[in-house]
Amino acid sequence: MNKKQRIKKNAEFQTIFKKGKSFANRQFVVYCLNKEEDYYRVGLSVSKKVGNAVVRNRIKRYIRQTFLEIHDQVFPNMDYIIIARNPAAKLDFHETKKSMEHVLKVAKVLKKKSL
């Protein structure tokens, strides 16, 4: 993800937490907020309770790669914050991608796949 697609500032996180809608499954919580720009931004949060640095960084890598693979299906004019829960530490990449797609479908921010 390039720089304009990242959410890093605490104030931006807090705005999305306060004004956005949250959706969850067992592994992830997703906060979504509409915005004016025509590109999406993603913020990641993985608590120290989830695992050590190696595990947390692997989860973040998997989430970033998932967004790269489904970027054409995600609504572009939104901000997303993904919070990883404890069970996410035990997932491999394909399970992570499946779980992320599930929670994004629950949030109704995934476009239908074109066959």
UniProtKB/TrEMBL annotation:
Q: What is its EC number?
A: 3.1.26.5
Keyword terms of this UniProt record:
Endonuclease, Hydrolase, Nuclease, RNA-binding, tRNA processing
Reactions listed under catalytic activity: Endonucleolytic cleavage of RNA, removing 5'-extranucleotides from tRNA precursor
Q: Where does the signal sequence lie?
A: none
Q: Which PROSITE patterns match?
A: RIBONUCLEASE_P (PS00648)
EC class of this enzyme? Answer: hydrolase
Q: GO biological process: any one?
A: tRNA 5'-leader removal
Recorded GO molecular functions are: 3'-tRNA processing endoribonuclease activity; ribonuclease P activity; tRNA binding
Extract the Pfam families matched here. Ribonuclease_P
Q: Does the keyword Nuclease apply?
A: yes
Can you supply one Gene Ontology CC term for this chain's record?
ribonuclease P complex
Function, as annotated, reads: RNaseP catalyzes the removal of the 5'-leader sequence from pre-tRNA to produce the mature 5'-terminus. It can also cleave other RNA substrates such as 4.5S RNA. The protein component plays an auxiliary but essential role in vivo by binding to the 5'-leader sequence and broadening the substrate specificity of the ribozyme.
Under which name does UniProt file this protein? Ribonuclease P protein component
